Amino acid sequence: MLGFATEQGSATAHTAILARALGLPAVVGIAGLVDAVEDGQAVLLDGDEGTLVIDPSADLVATVRPPADAASDAEPAITRDGRRIEVGCNAAGVDDARRAAAAGADGIGLLRSEFLFLGSDRLPSEDAQVAVLEEVTAAMGERPVILRTLDVGADKPLPALPQPHEVNPALGVRGLRLQLLRRPDLLLDQLRAALRVSARHPLRLMFPMVSTLDEVRQAKVLLEQARRDVTPSPADGTGMQVGIMIEVPAAAIAADVLAAEVDFFSLGTNDLTQYLFAADRTNPELAPLADSLHPALLRMVDQVVKAAHRRDRWVGVCGEMASDLSAVPLLVGLGIDELSVHPPAVARVKALVRRLEVAECTRVARAALELDSGAAVRGLLEQEGL
Ligand code: PEP
Ligand code: MG
């Protein structure tokens, strides 16, 4: 099987995310790689271990087994003491949705709608978006799909929508900010497309890169406008759940305020970690700093879950952390309701959830919140056999 290795990037940057979704072996952020390897040289890559061996010996190559096909598991993931954890998938296209369905995912917890806009120098019409969303939702049958509105900018540029240069693009006009500040017409097209599909399918809507309550309210005003355009009667199409990503620390800290305005939260731990530790997620040198098992991040998750549950809102995690088997017991212990993972991880995560006991996970997660480093949290998990 083929794979790839890069000198730049980190485990939560988009190259690695796409590789995982496709089940492609990849190792990213290997310092000095380009100088160390020559054209045509044989290398042996292990994406699970994160290793690359240059000129491997015949004996070593003989030990390699092709990866088994990812298992499928469509049964609910219920802990030993009876708590159901929804295990959905992240998807960035119709093929991903088919992989998610085949893997037995409970839904699509994050449909990265950027894919609708990539690969063309023209923006898609509302009708074109409806056609693709219909294909995605058809693949999932009755299972819910969470459509995230366009999240471009920073490490996700969009050729069809060139933006002026920014000195700090990760802190710039990206995600929801772009539509609210510059292109509400784009958001309206997406919202109308979503509303049309939601009339036939349990489609949910999610806004990315929210920092303030005011942004949520502005987005909801546009949603109302789209609803008036689409539905003959304003009472139609009101059942669509509307949520936001929690990926900016200001939103996490004000989660109690934001919970009043939405039906659910999904923690975008890739960006939340980047912004919390002020560590660029594409910079391999900073990858150890942006540690999602660090108690500072866990405390933030804890605060968001408590704020949401106080208002009976559900909370998911759609960042890479949800697919990390060492993080899952902590997330369950902190009260997370849904995990949105890569298609190849569905069966593994569901199997793990079934081995867990909420009471034990809660005790360990509470202890983790009091520790002083990610390494200490890993040590605790090991000690507890989790
Ligand atoms: C995240 O930030 O955790 C997330 C899921 O969104 P993306 O990786 O697309 O920025
Ligand atoms: Mg993000």
Explain how this protein is built.
The chain is of the alpha/beta class. The chain folds into 2 domains: 4-62, Phosphohistidine domain (Glucose Oxidase, domain 1), CATH 3.50.30; 77-384, Phosphoenolpyruvate-binding domains (TIM Barrel, Alpha-Beta Barrel). It is built from 16 helices and 13 strands. The chain has helices at residues 14-22, 33-36, 58-62, 94-103, 126-140, 176-181, 184-198, 213-230, 249-253, 255-259, 269-276, 295-310, 328-333, 346-355, 358-369, 374-383, and strands at 4-5, 26-27, 43-46, 51-54, 77-78, 84-91, 108-112, 145-148, 203-207, 242-246, 264-267, 314-317, 338-341. Strands 6-7-8-9-10-11-12-13 form an 8-stranded parallel β-barrel, surrounded by 5 helices. Strand 12, helix 13 (328-333) and strand 13 (338-341) form a beta-alpha-beta unit. Helix 7 (184-198) crosses helix 8. The longest helix is centred in the middle third of the chain and has 18 residues, at 213-230. It is globular, with a radius of gyration of 21 Å. The two termini are 31 Å apart. The mean pLDDT is 92. It binds phosphoenolpyruvate (PEP) and magnesium ion. The site of magnesium ion (MG) has 5 residues, from helix 11.
- What do we call the CATH homologous superfamily of the largest domain? Phosphoenolpyruvate-binding domains
What bound compounds does this protein have? phosphoenolpyruvate, magnesium ion
Work out the oligomeric state of the chains in this entry: single chain
Mean pLDDT: 92
The largest β sheet comes out as:
8 strands, parallel, barrel
Strand residues, percent = 5-15%
**What CATH architecture of the largest domain do you see?**
Alpha-Beta Barrel
SSE order, one letter for each helix or strand? EHEHEEHEEHEHEHHEHEHHEHHEHEHHH
Q: What is the helix fraction of residues, given as a range?
A: 25-40%
According to CATH, the fold-level topology of the largest domain is TIM Barrel
CATH class of the largest domain: Alpha Beta
The gyration radius over C-alpha positions equals 21 Å
Our count of domains comes out at 2
Question: In DSSP terms, counting alpha (H) and pi (I) runs of 4 or more, how many helices?
Answer: 16
Measured distance between first and last alpha carbons: 31 Å
Which spans of ≥5 residues are poorly predicted at pLDDT below 50?
Answer: none
User: Looking at the structure, what is the overall shape?
Assistant: globular
What structural class is derived from the secondary structure elements? alpha/beta
